[in-house]
Amino acid sequence: MKLITQRFYDGDGNWTRTKVHWSHEGIWYNRENREFWLEQKPDHYMMTWDGEEETWVGVLQQINLPGAGPIFVGFGRIVFESYGYVTFWAGPNDWIEGDTDALCAVLSGP
Protein backbone atom coordinates (compact mmCIF):
# COMPACT_ATOMS: atom_id res chain seq x y z
CA MET A 1 0.00 0.00 0.00
CA LYS A 2 1.21 3.48 -0.86
CA LEU A 3 -0.26 6.61 0.60
CA ILE A 4 0.53 10.30 0.64
CA THR A 5 -1.02 12.40 3.39
CA GLN A 6 -1.56 16.16 3.21
CA ARG A 7 -2.89 18.22 6.14
CA PHE A 8 -4.45 21.65 5.62
CA TYR A 9 -4.70 24.47 8.16
CA ASP A 10 -6.41 27.85 8.25
CA GLY A 11 -4.63 31.19 8.77
CA ASP A 12 -4.68 30.69 12.56
CA GLY A 13 -3.01 27.29 12.34
CA ASN A 14 -6.18 25.29 13.01
CA TRP A 15 -6.60 22.01 11.14
CA THR A 16 -9.32 22.18 8.46
CA ARG A 17 -8.99 18.88 6.55
CA THR A 18 -6.75 16.00 5.62
CA LYS A 19 -6.28 14.46 2.17
CA VAL A 20 -4.88 10.98 1.68
CA HIS A 21 -3.92 9.64 -1.75
CA TRP A 22 -4.26 5.83 -1.61
CA SER A 23 -2.90 3.16 -3.90
CA HIS A 24 -3.31 -0.44 -2.76
CA GLU A 25 -4.17 -4.00 -3.73
CA GLY A 26 -6.10 -6.64 -1.85
CA ILE A 27 -7.61 -10.08 -2.07
CA TRP A 28 -11.10 -11.60 -1.98
CA TYR A 29 -11.24 -15.03 -0.42
CA ASN A 30 -13.54 -17.80 0.68
CA ARG A 31 -13.85 -17.33 4.44
CA GLU A 32 -14.33 -21.07 5.00
CA ASN A 33 -11.52 -22.18 2.67
CA ARG A 34 -8.90 -19.46 2.28
CA GLU A 35 -6.94 -21.34 -0.38
CA PHE A 36 -9.52 -20.04 -2.89
CA TRP A 37 -8.90 -16.35 -3.46
CA LEU A 38 -8.82 -13.61 -6.10
CA GLU A 39 -6.49 -10.66 -6.43
CA GLN A 40 -8.06 -7.23 -6.29
CA LYS A 41 -6.39 -4.99 -8.86
CA PRO A 42 -4.70 -1.78 -7.72
CA ASP A 43 -7.05 0.92 -6.51
CA HIS A 44 -6.14 4.58 -6.73
CA TYR A 45 -8.26 7.15 -4.95
CA MET A 46 -8.15 10.24 -2.80
CA MET A 47 -9.85 10.43 0.59
CA THR A 48 -10.66 13.80 2.18
CA TRP A 49 -11.70 14.16 5.84
CA ASP A 50 -12.89 17.47 7.31
CA GLY A 51 -14.07 16.26 10.72
CA GLU A 52 -17.67 15.78 9.63
CA GLU A 53 -17.55 14.08 6.24
CA GLU A 54 -15.22 11.68 4.51
CA THR A 55 -15.13 11.72 0.69
CA TRP A 56 -13.50 9.14 -1.56
CA VAL A 57 -12.87 9.93 -5.25
CA GLY A 58 -11.24 7.69 -7.87
CA VAL A 59 -10.98 3.96 -8.60
CA LEU A 60 -12.27 2.41 -5.39
CA GLN A 61 -12.24 -1.24 -6.31
CA GLN A 62 -11.69 -3.51 -9.30
CA ILE A 63 -11.84 -7.32 -9.37
CA ASN A 64 -10.74 -9.39 -12.36
CA LEU A 65 -11.28 -13.11 -12.92
CA PRO A 66 -8.23 -14.87 -14.35
CA GLY A 67 -8.77 -15.27 -18.08
CA ALA A 68 -12.16 -13.52 -17.98
CA GLY A 69 -11.33 -9.89 -17.20
CA PRO A 70 -13.14 -7.47 -14.89
CA ILE A 71 -16.31 -8.60 -13.12
CA PHE A 72 -16.64 -5.76 -10.61
CA VAL A 73 -15.68 -2.10 -10.80
CA GLY A 74 -16.27 0.70 -8.37
CA PHE A 75 -15.25 4.23 -9.14
CA GLY A 76 -16.60 7.74 -8.78
CA ARG A 77 -17.34 9.65 -5.57
CA ILE A 78 -18.63 8.43 -2.20
CA VAL A 79 -19.43 10.69 0.76
CA PHE A 80 -19.75 9.32 4.32
CA GLU A 81 -21.05 11.04 7.46
CA SER A 82 -18.86 11.01 10.56
CA TYR A 83 -20.59 7.81 11.73
CA GLY A 84 -19.73 5.88 8.55
CA TYR A 85 -23.10 6.11 6.79
CA VAL A 86 -23.00 6.68 3.02
CA THR A 87 -24.83 9.93 2.23
CA PHE A 88 -23.94 10.28 -1.47
CA TRP A 89 -22.68 7.88 -4.14
CA ALA A 90 -22.07 8.77 -7.80
CA GLY A 91 -20.41 6.82 -10.56
CA PRO A 92 -20.46 3.22 -11.76
CA ASN A 93 -20.14 0.75 -8.92
CA ASP A 94 -21.58 -2.56 -9.89
CA TRP A 95 -21.09 -6.12 -10.97
CA ILE A 96 -20.45 -6.11 -14.71
CA GLU A 97 -23.45 -7.80 -16.30
CA GLY A 98 -24.39 -9.25 -12.90
CA ASP A 99 -21.54 -11.78 -13.04
CA THR A 100 -21.64 -12.84 -9.39
CA ASP A 101 -21.91 -16.51 -10.43
CA ALA A 102 -18.38 -16.42 -11.87
CA LEU A 103 -17.03 -14.96 -8.63
CA CYS A 104 -18.80 -17.62 -6.54
CA ALA A 105 -17.47 -20.38 -8.79
CA VAL A 106 -13.86 -19.23 -8.40
CA LEU A 107 -14.12 -18.82 -4.64
CA SER A 108 -15.85 -22.19 -4.22
CA GLY A 109 -12.95 -24.08 -5.76
CA PRO A 110 -12.92 -27.05 -8.11
Topology:
Layout: E1 2-9, E2 15-30, E3 33-49, E4 53-65, E5 69-81, E6 86-90, E7 93-95, H1 100-108
Antiparallel strand pairs: 1-2, 2-3, 3-4, 4-5, 5-6, 5-7
What is the structure about, briefly put?
With about 110 residues, the chain is mostly beta strands.
Overview of this structure, please?
With 110 residues, this protein is mainly β. The protein has one domain. The protein has 1 helix and 7 strands. Strands 1, 2, 3, 4, 5, 6 and 7 form a 7-stranded antiparallel sheet that branches. It is elongated. It starts with a strand and ends with a helix. The relative contact order is 0.17.
Provide the structure class: mainly beta
Rg from Cα: 17 Å
Overall average residue pLDDT: 78
Number of helices: 1
Key terms:
110 residues; 8% helix
